[in-house]
Automatic annotation (TrEMBL), chains A, B:
<protein>
    <submittedName>
        <fullName>Glucokinase</fullName>
        <ecNumber>2.7.1.2</ecNumber>
    </submittedName>
</protein>
<dbReference type="InterPro" id="IPR043129">
    <property type="entry name" value="ATPase_NBD"/>
</dbReference>
<dbReference type="InterPro" id="IPR000600">
    <property type="entry name" value="ROK"/>
</dbReference>
<comment type="similarity">
    <text>Belongs to the ROK (NagC/XylR) family.</text>
</comment>
<dbReference type="GO" id="GO:0004340">
    <property type="term" value="F:glucokinase activity"/>
</dbReference>
<dbReference type="Pfam" id="PF00480">
    <property type="entry name" value="ROK"/>
</dbReference>
<keyword id="KW-0808">Transferase</keyword>
């Protein structure tokens, strides 16, 4: 049996940083202590990246001081394009950095081995090892929030594609609406939580800021909400169809804020996908099991893997 | 250094069966003797599958008799949906079988270990080990002929997806034309060699049966040929864009009959893809190196791997 390791994990988000002291093995991990603080912003991308490094180091020191066991390693995950092999934050549209050597700097500052990776892939790793995708060889784990991305478990391993994999939210599914990314017809322009709220607001003039409010309206029979919801389901089904056509996953795990809608999402999504699928393998649709702690748990697993190896 | 193995490889196609005695190691393989014969057809799918087994056994005996070395293993690849792990031909639209236990039957009849797999993935394996995708971690190998499929090398390994992976020819790229598969907008409806020939014939009334004739007409400045060619390039670029968005491959290797057009295909395809790409990693576009022997070489490598392991 693998020995229990104590590691600190930090999931750097666009708004918040979630950190935790985690106790675990490569197949079991749980939070001992959790912390949350705002993600620092500075004048430009490199300055923001340095401020993030400072904030991560502070969180590590804080959790280390609170731990009854020596902290053996640190796992840190960030959004955007991430080069896991070289430990670089290649690009973040939101936080502004380019080719920033997070792993090296964090290693120097914390004095323990640092694993560095991508927030969505780390969440997928956690769902694969500990959550809704456990035991599967081929699965797509899709958090749906402000945007939509996917972690791809293929042949039992996370696929990175040099940091460029999993942009399922930016596949063109034919609706033609422009996306912030510069393309048209992107899945996330209709199906992200943010898009659902925005489209309902635009359609009705009632300002809502979360998809949960639209879900409520759908349950109440609001016809505008039903149209927006159906269009989101259609875009999502077409995106999943592309993943099924190219990759043949056994299951698609839906996470993020939108998955909190539960059957209101799953039932029509399954129906639409069944209508669209012809020869592809129909993936099982599941809800994520780990909630918004998945990225942090995944970062912890990466750190545990590194010290165990 | 790995010892040279002698194996027999058979690539069962919809029309022809290509067979060869191959001498090689996991990283080097070459044809000693080659054979080709028509693929047998019988009254129904199971009967066709049994006839194919008989034909494979005959080819193995013939090549074994011609070999100066004992044949240690056999590799056989077939089209359609293939379950590599269980050695089943799950489904072939063209040849009609369902869940046919090829590996088991061939093992009993030949008396040597049999590796069984998928024609396109085997071709991809050969291009990855010996050809145009050598040394790459992440690559898409696309043979373009009657249809379009793709072998996906991800993290250095062929991805199977339970036999369902790689149907890049059936991704909807928005042109709306119906496909034989039952969907609309499929890449291969515009970009396969067969589609290019068919669409040029339909447009001009001049019957051509191969894309090579349309390529000739493009070179000669025929405006109808140019339209059909451009539409094919656009569909293909959009299909590759989807693969880039989801998988982030370093390179896309184009094979099959259409790739014989060389720069007439590559140059406008690269240009169109550069226009479409926004944040995705631009894959290098390469021509396949192994021609139509790739599937057979891949089958041989599978057999060599199995006896070497």
């Amino acid at each position: 049996m693998a020995r229990t390791r104590y590691v600190v994990a930090v999931d750097v988000g666009g708004t918040d940083m979630k950190a935790a002291l985690v106790a675990g093995t490569p197949t079991e991990a749980s939070f001992v202590t959790q912390r949350r603080r705002g993600t620092p912003r500075a004048s430009d991308g490199p300055a923001t990246a340095h401020a993030v490094v400072d904030a991560v180091v502070e969180l590590v020191e804080e959790l280390r001081a609170a731990s009854d066991h020596p902290v053996e390693a640190v796992g840190v995950v960030v959004p955007g394009v991430v080069d896991d092999d070289r430990g670089l934050g290649v690009f973040s549209a939101n936080l502004g950095w380019r080719d920033f050597p997070f792993r090296m700097l964090l290693g120097e500052r914390t004095g323990v081995p640092v694993s560095f990776g991508h927030d969505v892939r780390a969440g997928g790793l956690a769902e694969h090892r500990l959550g809704a995708a456990r035991g599967l060889t081929d699965a797509v784990i899709m958090p749906i929030g402000t945007g939509i991305a996917a972690a791809l478990v293929l042949g039992g391993r996370l696929h990175s594609g040099g940091g460029y994999s999993g942009e399922l939210g930016h596949v063109d599914v034919g609706h033609g609406d422009p996306c912030g990314c510069g393309q048209r017809g992107c899945v996330e322009t209709r199906a992200s939580s943010a898009a659902i709220a925005r489209r309902y607001s635009a359609r009705t003039g009632k300002q809502v800021d979360r998809a949960a409010a639209v879900a409520e309206a759908v349950r109440a029979g609001d016809p505008d909400a039903v149209v927006v919801w159906d269009e989101a389901v259609d875009a999502l089904a077409r995106g999943i169809l592309v993943a099924a056509t190219l990759l043949g996953p056994q299951a698609v795990v839906l996470g993020g804020g939108l998955a909190l809608a539960g059957d209101l999402l799953l039932v029509p999504l399954r129906k639409r996908l069944e209508e669209l699928i012809v020869f592809q393998r129909m993936p099982e649709l599941r809800l994520a099991a780990l909630g918004d702690g998945a990225g942090c748990l995944g970062a912890a697993l990466m750190a545990i893997d590194a010290v165990g190896a």
